[in-house]
Amino acid sequence: MTAVRIRDLVLEFTGTTTVRALDGVDLEVAEGSSLAIVGESGSGKSTLASVVGRLQPRSARIVNGTLEVGGVDVLALDAGGLRRYRRDALAYIAQDPIGSLDPTMRIGRQLQLVLSAMGDDTSTRRQLELLEAMQIENPARVIRLFPHQVSGGMAQRVAIAMAMCRTPKLLIADEPTAALDSQVREEVVRLLFDQARAQGTTVLWLSHDLPAVARWCDEVAVMYAGRVVERGPAQAVLGQPVHPYSRALAATDPSRARRGERLASIPGAPPMLHGPAEGCAFAPRCPARIEACATTRPQPAVTRHSLCIRTEELLAQDRQEVIA
Ligand SMILES: Nc1ncnc2c1ncn2[C@@H]1O[C@H](COP(=O)(O)OP(=O)(O)O)[C@@H](O)[C@H]1O
Ligand SMILES: [Mg+2]
Fold it and tell me: Fewer CB atoms inside 10 Å of the end CB: C or N, the chain?
């Protein structure tokens, strides 16, 4: 079963200038699986995640495409349908854990409200149970605290508890660990994926952390300038990337540098599109570009989902290098 199906999704922000944040996204996520969306800042990850939750800002206009979650046409939902969708199917974890909680309310009270909205047991015992499942020490103390009184790691555990107690079908986590230090980051990611696996929740995880993606996710989608330029099994795509952008991104992965390879960063920055990219949006930064890249809009290659007109050639070069 497909949990999320996106076809040729185009989204523009309208204002003094038009910004095309999604330039034709195609994506499928299997039910109960985890998909990471990776790419530099500005590639459209948050915009894509926000539309899946119908949480995009008012200035966003869907220009084209379809979006289905669990077979439901999310873009067509009316107010009532949208409320039910958000309550029954969806959970969202934001980047800033403390900011995502209500600053005026003790943590216990916030848990109580979530449980009550679910028609669940709202007792203190149930609240403590949720926090214990997140390996929070001394939960009896934590439920009496306000969000600003806990650490970022603790707040993110609380946010995960609040998201997962509703047994969502789909969890969207937008760089949930970006603000945390590395030790805490690993624990929070582990908790998130353990909970999701236990409940069969489909996970859409936006991340910069490629080693963690390879470790925890089934699939990965590499985004650039509002398109998914490569997608496939996480370990294959990150271990042997095909698209020149994925290759460049994987080469910036610090864990590779630790294994003795050169730590590269990609010169230049992603473009801001104001309309459809005519050719390949990565071409100006691409070491493998040819003249046609400026004018030919790449379509998925047959052997591997990579939006590069030279995919078959690059794969053949790889095979040669292995033989040589
Ligand atoms: N509310 C907005 N109004 C106008 N442009 C936006 C808005 N949000 C994002 N953008 C633009 O859309 C593009 C994609 O941004 P975003 O989805 O935040 O990327 P990412 O999450 O990968 O960093 C960027 O060019 C960004 O400047
Ligand atoms: Mg973002």
Answer: C
